[in-house]
Amino acid sequence: MGRGGQPGPTEKRLGQSLRDMVWSLVALLLIIAALLVFNRGCSFSPGGPTIEPDSAQTVDLGVALPASARTAGFPVRLPVVPEGWRANSSSTGAVPPVSVVVRAGWLTPGRFVQLSQSGAAVGDLVRVETERDDPAPTGTVLVGSTEWTVYPGRRDEVAWVADLGDVRLLITGTGTTEEFRALAEATQQAAPLPKE
Question: Rounded to a whole number, what is the largest CA-CA distance in the chain?
Fold first, then answer.
């Protein structure tokens, strides 16, 4: 305190610094709020995340999978999926020790499914695609005359795997059993894409 009970220079600066800091914080919060409002970058979803098909990218699997088929050492198939499904991903990756995997993904009504095709051994493919070190099967599903083995997948997903002899197929995602079955059936019926 200065003379006569008046605040001294130190107390004045302290009061001004605190006031300036509060005003700076208010201004920063207003800027953040404006960005969130204008960009709709924040939403409340009590039921968990949802898929908005209109905002997701689209991939032309009619171009992507034939390109992969030309270089893959195994037959690659392009299934004809149910109407309303939208292809939104395509990728390739390594399956150690000696193979690769060709992936295609679709958005289904409110969910997604992914088909992985590989020349790798079943165990190697399941390990790579489920990210589990020692996956153990939990059952089987018969689609047509083909038996698919069920494994736990990533998070709370499942993975269906079939060995067609010249290629191993794996289906995973958040799709329903009916959607998995539809993709399995469509893939089994699809002829291998030409290599040239």
Answer: 99
Q: Which residue has the tokens 């006569």?
A: 4
CB atoms within 10 A of CB 92: 16
Asked if 75 contacts 103 with a C-beta cutoff of 8 angstroms, the reply is: no
Pairing assessment for the beta strands 99-108 and 86-95 based on DSSP bridges: antiparallel
Distance between CA 160 and CA 147 in Å, rounded?
Answer: 9
Task: Specify the 3-state DSSP secondary structure of 148.
Answer: strand
Q: Give the pTM.
A: 0.72
Q: Of 175, 145, 178, 180, give the one whose Cα is nearest residue 161.
A: 180
C-alpha to C-alpha distance for 134 and 17, rounded to whole angstroms: 60
pLDDT tens for the 196 residues of the chain, in order: 555 666 666 665 656 777 777 788 788 788 877 676 666 544 554 544 455 545 568 999 999 999 999 999 999 999 999 999 999 999 999 999 889 999 999 999 989 999 999 999 999 999 999 999 888 999 999 999 999 999 999 988 999 999 999 999 999 999 999 999 999 999 999 999 998 7
Number of H helices, E strands in the chain: 4, 7
Is the distance from CB of 80 to CB of 190 less than 8 angstroms? Answer: yes
Among the listed residues 124, 93, 90, 94, the one whose alpha carbon sits nearest the alpha carbon of residue 106: 90
